[in-house]
């Protein structure tokens, strides 16, 4: 991302692949890429990419560039990652000079933190339509594959097999187009879908529930590390046989500590080989990355939390005093 | 019908802002990727082709 115009290329910088179809003026025909909790490539398929390319070429040939809208990037300004003050400090501290996408988001969040404007919810950028209850087909990303029961989309009347042509009056060709519009959607209010069902055009209004952007498992997001403290140790999830041996139920946490790097964890007495059974009241089965994310989203720098662990067959509870501030604060 | 195609751009490093900027890793294959956005836009203008701009993690 070194030197990239961030105003022209706005996307969820936590991800690993993103692309844009543009005309020479920089107007967007479509976005392709993006990700959701389920995995990095749930919406990356050769078929959907080829079909998006065909649709873009048709739009281009028809001269159908859209008029500028709030969903298009700002063409005039040119801010680059290097202009975000924390980015310079991040680069100065490491050998790697390549600016990754997630570095950009982290720097932006650090910058907001330095101005006292950071909120934990800010990691949930470019929400997936799944947050409304809509699962799109991977190969044809205008088609609804399923609608979650009891979801906002279900309540509004979105059905499996519907073709979504527009979101808030913005035409959408892909999952990434949909997330772009949702990025601009309010915290509470409505999102309007233009839908085709059995040849009929329909308008469907989806009411946004409070906290609708917050996805269930954001542990893939590197940016969670900016909004809260980490555990100070890394651990491997026990397999079912190892859990049985330790008499840990399958649905409960069993994480064997392999590295302790945080001074707060060392001071609390966490050691390599300990099996973590719970942290701060959370004891369900999860990976260390999910546990880190849980802590980062539920606790603040400077808080104290209890860690329950198994050492030599005996349970013990230690108290960790988490660091007072993040690395770049 | 006129045969249209896309211009492929991979944006990993386009600026002279950072003295220590890394060089992009060139991609193999049948596509002649352009690694500079301004050059890509100029090419898009002169050829009349739309751009396919890709951001990928290369390291």
Explain how this protein is built.
The complex is a heterodimer of chains A (329) and B (59). In chain A, 24% of the residues lie in helices and 23% in strands. In chain A, the strands form four sheets. A five-stranded antiparallel beta sheet of chain A has the order 9-10-11-12-13. Chain A has 329 residues and is α+β, with helices and mostly antiparallel strands. Chain A is globular. In chain A, helix 2 packs across helix 3. With 59 residues, chain B is an alpha+beta fold. Chain B has one helix at 37-47; strands at residues 7-10, 51-56. Chains A and B meet through strand 1 and helix 1 of A and helix 1 and strand 2 of B. Strand 1 (17-22) of chain A pairs antiparallel with strand 2 of chain B.
Q: Brief description of this entry?
A:
The complex is a heterodimer of chains A (329) and B (59). Chain A has 329 residues and is an alpha+beta fold.
Low-confidence stretches of chain A: none
Portion of residues in helices of chain B?
10-25%
* N-to-C span of chain A: 23 Å
Percent of residues in helices of chain A = 10-25%
DSSP strand tally of chain A: 13
User: Biggest sheet of chain B, in brief?
Assistant: 2 strands, parallel
Which percent band covers the strand fraction of chain B? 15-25%
Low-confidence stretches of chain B: 12-19
Oligomer: heterodimer
Number of helices of chain B: 1
Strand order of the largest sheet of chain B: 1-2
- Mean pLDDT across all amino acids of chain B: 73
Characterize the main sheet of chain A: 5 strands, antiparallel
Q: Report the mean per-residue pLDDT of chain A as an integer.
A: 93
Q: Total strand count of chain B, please?
A: 2
**What is the N-to-C succession of helices and strands of chain A?**
EEHHHEEHEEHEEHEHEHEHEE
